[in-house]
Amino acid sequence: MSHWLEDLKKAIPEERILTSLADRHSYSFDASFGEYLPEAVVQAKEKEEVVAVFKLANRYRVPVYPRGSGTCLSGGPLPVHGGIVLDMSQWPKKIDHRPDDLTVTVTPSVLTARINEEAEKHGLMYAPDPSSAHVATIGGNLAENSGGPRGLKYGVTKDHVIGLEVITPEGEVMRTGGGTIKNVTGYDLTKLIVGSEGTLGVIVEATLKLMPKPPAVQTMMVAFDHVRKAGEAISKTLTSGILPSKMEFMDQACIVAVENFKPVGLPVHAAAVVILELDGHPETLKVERKLVEEIMERIGAKEVIIPKTEEEAENIWHARKQVSPAIAKIKPTKVSEDATVPRSKIPDFMDRLQEIKEKFDVEVVAFGHAGDGNLHPNVLCDKRNKEEMKRVELAVEEMFKAAIELGGTLSGEHGIGTMKAPFMELELGEVGVDMMKRLKDAWDPNHIMNPGKIFVEKGQRLVLTDE
Fold first, then answer.
1. Is residue 421 within 8 Å of residue 406, measured between CB atoms?
2. DSSP letters for 271-328
3. Which of 132, 130, 107 is nearest to 203 (CA)?
4. What is the DSSP letter of 3?
5. Which residues pair with 104 in a beta bridge?
6. One domain for residues 220 and 296
7. DSSP assignment letter at 340
8. ∠ CA(31), CA(37), CA(39), 5° rounding?
């Protein structure tokens, strides 16, 4: 280590190279499971510094782990083989709006929510809205291809990226895409890098699409006596020709948890609620609201709640955002997943979750972006209880298998990271995973770029406890 660290200090200002145990420990974990201590942390602020880090890393075969705010739920930035954590959150922040082009260029350290806040000053919006947008950096969102409630109508992060500036694993500066909405020149390297979880390069600048902010929105909350009916209502709404901007699901356990945490008047006796938002012209919303009410009543909704004021609507959406912190109060540990299934299979997936809950005697609550089939089953447990955690590991594995058997996918927005790597072949098959590995080998011949992510390593399996 001493040789490469000395060379590192020649290339980077020493005050931005962290080597004390306390500093390194703060970079050893994210919002998922596992702790891995890096040998050094570099707080990069210039392209030349990132280039220098990668040149050195290739020379000494030192692994490099890019990191934003550390909000990742799949282990994406964890330094599983030590080496260098490359902290991109200290990068100078830039938001360069071009309203006439409906684009914005940003640096990776910008908080995602800030992009939308600035866009709104021009009557525009940046559509992707992950729940962590107020604390997560856009660089991390790009790496993980993050989603959010508005993904139903407007798509996820990759659908809003038109150009990138990237430092490759070998320390070369590369641009992909550009500033135009249409661009079919060569392979779509922009889409390849977005969602590659920091395994193919480090994004130092991104050009994103903006769109006009809808003139009006209408929130609705619908309560059901049966979870399956809630799932059917989602499918019927989406096949009716109405496309809400958001369509969220909460089961009874989530409803009760939120009301115990910060009460807003949610219907605690309902088996489930569907919260949706329509957006568009005010006259159109009147028609669509009436049609949605009719659909919900035909399915057998217990109650359709229409907020009378903007404040009431904001309270409903705030309640949805409070689910994660609310359920975290129930037990010390929360295992958050994001299996996604075809929308018509949501009721079947909910049935499977109930079976898994009973089979492994674990506490499971479910919520999520049901409009696009992206549910977040959360297992509530105590990681100090080793026997319980073994059952949780088996339950989570069964959830992944259930999602795939129903025609779904391992991840809708959290990424693969370390948590889901052992299950990749279940979904993609041996050939599919091998083709991805070939791409990785070509881009990163010395395997220094975020190793230990996406692809399962020898003996690797899902482990939620320290063994």
1. no
2. SEEEEEEEEE-HHHHHHHHHHHHHHHHHHT-SEEE--SSHHHHHHHHHHHHTHHHHHT
3. 107
4. H
5. 97, 208
6. yes
7. B
8. 135
197, part of any domain = yes
Q: Tell whether 441 is covered by a domain.
A: no
What stretch of H or E contains 431?
Answer: helix 424-443
Q: How far apart are CA 451 and CA 63, in angstroms?
A: 7
Using 50, 70 and 90 to split pLDDT, how confident is the model at 244?
Answer: very high
pTM over 0.85: yes
Task: Give the residue numbers spanning the domain of 361.
Answer: 331-405
Domain boundary, last residue among 179, 212, 245: 212
pLDDT higher at 292 or 32:
292
CB 418 within 8 Å of CB 453: yes
Last residue of a domain, one of 389, 405, 421: 405
User: If you count them, how many residues does the chain have?
Assistant: 467
Q: Are residues 15 and 100 in the same domain?
A: no
Largest Cα separation within the chain, whole Å, is: 71
Question: Residue 96 CB: number of other CB atoms within 10 A?
Answer: 12
Q: Please check whether residue 146 lies inside any domain of the structure.
A: yes
DSSP 212-247: EPPSEEEEEEEEESSHHHHHHHHHHHHTTT---SEE
Q: How many domains does the chain have?
A: 4
CA distance 377 to 359: 15
| Average pLDDT estimate for 193-208 | 97
Please give the helix or strand (H or E) that residue 436 lies within, else none.
helix 424-443
Q: Tokens 């600035």 correspond to what residue?
A: 118
**What's the chain's average pLDDT?**
94
CATH of the domain at 173: 3.30.465.10
Q: In whole angstroms, what is the distance from residue 9 CA to residue 14 CA?
A: 6
pLDDT at res. 459 = 63
The domain that holds 254 is classified in CATH as 3.30.70.3450
Residue 93 confidence (pLDDT): 98
Q: Which residues of 278-314 are buried (b: 16+ CB within 10 A; e: fewer)?
A: bbeeeeebeebbeebeebbeebebbebbebeeeeebe
- pLDDT tens track for 330-377: 999 999 888 889 988 888 998 999 999 999 999 999 998 988 888 899
Using DSSP's 3-state secondary structure scheme, residue 7 falls into helix
CA 438 – CA 422 distance, rounded (Å): 18
* Statement: residue 236 has pLDDT above 70: yes
